[in-house]
Amino acid sequence: MSFLKDLTRFPKRARYGIAFLVAGWIWFFLTVYIILGEIPGKIFAAGIGITFLVFKGYNWARILCILFNLLIVIYVLFFVFHLWGIGRGSEGLCLAANIILFGYSGYYFLAKETSDYFKSINEQDKKAQKDA
Fold this sequence. Notes:
Blueprint: H1 2-7, H2 12-36, H3 41-56, H4 59-85, H5 89-110, H6 112-131
Helix pairs in contact: 2-3, 2-5, 3-4, 4-5
């Protein structure tokens, strides 16, 4: 219940971004497991870590998340075309859903409302550190 309470502190667009980010990682790991039979540990750790840091409200993590989302979209596009080329189009289509999920997550994290919110959190943290 505390998680949902913490989630309500974010503005609407930031909540959408976080929801698409979490859904994107879940779907990514599910499809990678179906296709490869395993989940790469480093990618798993990076996905969990960046989601946690964005949820904590760090602006640098939001920016890093946007870059990761872009890289994942490019990475997934490459593999979707590869899977379609070798006749595994259904798996490629399943993997292509990640493009939508991570794309929308990046879109909502780039929104002005979200950007302003994350910047204000960081300014409050800097003031608190100076006062301490």
